[in-house]
Amino acid sequence: MMTDEKIKNSSELEFAVFCIENVAAKLGVGAERVYQAFTEKSNIMNGYIVPEFEVLHTQSREYIVDDLLDVMNERGVEV
Q1: How is the chain split into domains, by residue range?
Q2: Closest C-alpha to 49, from 66, 33, 34, 64
Q3: Could you give the CA distance from residue 47 to residue 55 in angstroms, rounded to a whole number?
Q4: Mind listing the pLDDT tens digit for each residue in 1-54?
Q5: Which of 38, 52, 67, 68 supports an S-S bond with 45, CB 3.0-4.6 Å?
């Protein structure tokens, strides 16, 4: 199980925003709803996106969005 990690710097913050905005665009919903799904409805932000930043941010936008949709699906998180 991954540990919780808080955003440590502007690169991680920018990546978190990138993830939220691009997942929102793919799902056709507002970014606020995806933010809530990643933070309030689940632990995807601090338990997945931030700890996996070093690996994830090197991938393509499409890969990242699909990966996050898979994680949401596996955890039963809906926006």
Answers
A1: 10-74
A2: 64
A3: 14
A4: 557 899 999 999 999 999 999 999 999 999 999 999 999 999 999 999 999 999
A5: 38
